[in-house]
Amino acid sequence: MVSLALQSVSVSLGRRTVVRDVNASFGAGELVAIVGPNGAGKSTLARAMLALVPFAGTIALDGADVARLPRAQLARQVAYLPQGQTLHWPLSVERLVELGRLPHLAPLSRIGATDRAAVEQAMAQADVLSLRDRVATELSGGERARVMLARALAVQAPALIADEPLASLDPGHQIDVMDLLQAEARGGALVITVLHDLTMAARYCDRVLLMAQGALVAQGSPEAVLTRENLRAVYGIEARIDRAGGWPSVTVMGRAAGEAAAT
């Protein structure tokens, strides 16, 4: 069982405070969405959870300070899918997914049967088995996104942080990815994902964290967080919230009165 607890977490990049005094806790079996407008601090908060940026406050993984954990140990415990990765080396898809097993390998060692089984399972989950021999740098944006997800899944960590995993994906594969993330959570993993699609967050996630200007302004069930009032205050939009399908569906109607489009 894995847990992640944030207490008074703030992040400053240069002279600018990007994340402000965030308190939250997460547990095994949860699928949690972090949402908010551009520049709200979502991705920076996700990176802080992995000690990839300096932060003030405390972030504890199973009670241990993430900033003090050895990198390999943290990588085995929390898999990470960053947004918008650029591939520089012409590796095959299979070889790229195999890189997800590096946290489990000793220096200069080769992957074994257990690692190969994890790679096969991850590629099947992300629907990239047919791409295994393709050169990763020649993939489309959507194909590349699914391959990078497979690499993260190959870690087989008890927690996964996915930053905008739906970017570049067509609607069908967006549903596939959210089904997969939900299945990971139902299987006992902790899954935290940064999303822009509010309806996907409402439909699939157990809990939603809503951020604005670096601060956590609301957290709770999708029904409690994704309200017309909250969306007006945070995004400056008027939205219709429908629940006919059993979950909130968010339809943006336009800018709220007096709100100008972000530049």
UniProtKB/TrEMBL annotation:
<dbReference type="Pfam" id="PF00005">
    <property type="entry name" value="ABC_tran"/>
</dbReference>
<keyword id="KW-0547">Nucleotide-binding</keyword>
<dbReference type="GO" id="GO:0016887">
    <property type="term" value="F:ATP hydrolysis activity"/>
</dbReference>
<comment type="similarity">
    <text>Belongs to the ABC transporter superfamily.</text>
</comment>
<protein>
    <submittedName>
        <fullName>Iron complex transport system ATP-binding protein</fullName>
    </submittedName>
</protein>
<dbReference type="InterPro" id="IPR017871">
    <property type="entry name" value="ABC_transporter-like_CS"/>
</dbReference>
<feature type="domain" description="ABC transporter">
    <location>
        <begin position="4"/>
        <end position="238"/>
    </location>
</feature>
<dbReference type="InterPro" id="IPR003593">
    <property type="entry name" value="AAA+_ATPase"/>
</dbReference>
<dbReference type="InterPro" id="IPR027417">
    <property type="entry name" value="P-loop_NTPase"/>
</dbReference>
<keyword id="KW-1278">Translocase</keyword>
<keyword id="KW-0813">Transport</keyword>
<dbReference type="InterPro" id="IPR003439">
    <property type="entry name" value="ABC_transporter-like_ATP-bd"/>
</dbReference>
<comment type="function">
    <text>Part of the ABC transporter complex HmuTUV involved in hemin import. Responsible for energy coupling to the transport system.</text>
</comment>
<keyword id="KW-0067">ATP-binding</keyword>
<dbReference type="GO" id="GO:0005524">
    <property type="term" value="F:ATP binding"/>
</dbReference>
